[in-house]
Amino acid sequence: MTEQPQREQWGSRLGFLMAAIGSAIGLGNIWRFPAVTYEHGGGAFLIPYLAALLTAGIPLLILEYTIGRKYRSSPPGALRKLARPAEAIGWWQVAICFVVATYYAAILAWALRYVGFSFDQAWGDDPEGFLNQEFLQLNETPGEISTFVPGVAWPLLLIWVLTLGVLLLGIRRGIERANIVTIPLLVGFFLVLVARALTLDGAALGLDALFTPDWGALADGSVWVAAYGQIFFSLSVGFGIMITYASYLHRKSDLSGSAMVAAFANSSFEILAGVAVFATLGFMAQAAGVGVADVSSSGVGLAFVAFPQIISEMPMGAFFGVLFFLSLAIAGFTSLISIVQVIIAAVQDRTGLGRTGAVLGVGGAVTVVSLLLFANDSGLYLLDVADHFINQYGIALAGLVLLITVSWGLRKLPALQRNADATSSIGLGVWWRICLGVLTPVVLTWMMVDSLRHELDENYEGYSTTFLLWGGWGVAGGALLAGLLLTLLSRRRPAGRETTVDSAHSVDHSVDHSVERND
């Protein structure tokens, strides 16, 4: 039997919470939540949103925290200790994180460049043309790669250097310290953005459009599904991040209280982002003499087309632009760190490599793939398709399979509930098991069916079938196949390492049973 190195731990509960909040707060909070709210009933949408938070978001967070802390391993190792076949789900999540990391970093590289572009409004009178033609040098044919784009490559490389630099320092000195600095800074930047946006002419017009409730929307099932979808994608659940982060917790850490703090902090930031975005869109609508519906957008179009146009027209536009794109970069940076840490933790747990070797090995591979796929003239198309399919048929589907496996197949929810209750300030009732065992799987299944129906009705964004097959379905299916392959490779471990893992497993169980008896 070989002696395993002691697992790293967070320095404090605050450090863990900041890291969890930093992972949850990302690009989707800024450019997805406001648009989803506006399109699904405005102020009325906050009712299904809150219901989804309480019945899916927080219960899922607690579940992943419990699995991570109890088994003290990355997703493959933790799920293997639940049941050997479940290891495949963990490796699937690792593969998903690899895919997401490659394109997520590209968006941060764009945001970094746009910080510089904001000083002199380099996009001129045509932000869309500047983005597509001058900056990204977009190919007319989606999926056809013909040109390397240095203007994207060097900031992308810089993003990876910064990310891997933080990860090399470890959990406490790297990730924890980085989030303790960046999260307050991000909130401070956004408070300044909100204050500036609220003073713009037309701000009230934008806020009315965002928050005026359409109570009739509550009778539409798609509105409730959208609320659950927003919560699911916003909280970083379903692809192993929170299992990984919780594996570095102390054994007596409060799980339910931490989950509620992280979830409500994330939702508060989403509402703050909604105010900033729609107050600014209201200014744009009034200046153009059109309705807010005519200028509202989401995703890349909001951040890199609509906002540059607003920045060019508003007083102190350069200041507003620098703050906005810095905030976008910081929000994405803390999320990227958490995504890559999942892969690093899995490699460390499987191979016994030290942090330096694992970071450089994982970081080198993901950086090369990221540069090859997204620093070219088809990068935006690849990013758009990969993001859509890996979210719908990767993250959400992996989360659904995990829930069904844990709740229905293994029937582990009661045992996990006892483990969480033993050290948590807020006890979990039968509602927790009902939410995870019935409600959330039903909603996620409906999301899958509804999304698949739309895919079959028409090609996503009008892209060619060939491009969608390899750039979309191929990416999502490739992540699943990679997870299965990694599972097979992982099981071909030396006998000594197998004994060590099984021995650690028995120790974990003895500790857990002791906690449950004391409870």
Automatic annotation (TrEMBL):
What UniProt keywords apply to this chain's record, in alphabetical order? Membrane, Transmembrane, Transmembrane helix, Transport
Record keyword Membrane present: yes
- Spans through the membrane: 12-31, 43-67, 88-112, 152-171, 183-207, 227-249, 261-285, 318-344, 356-375, 390-410, 430-449, 469-489
One Pfam family, short name = SNF
Provide the leader sequence positions. none
- Recorded superkingdom: Bacteria
The record's subcellular locations are: Membrane
Under PROSITE patterns, the record lists: NA_NEUROTRAN_SYMP_3
Q: How does it sit in the membrane?
A: Multi-pass membrane protein
Sequence segments annotated as region (Disordered): 500-519
Q: Which PANTHER family match?
A: TRANSPORTER (PTHR42948:SF1)
**Protein's name in the database:** Sodium-dependent transporter
Organism for this UniProt entry: Streptomyces chisholmiae
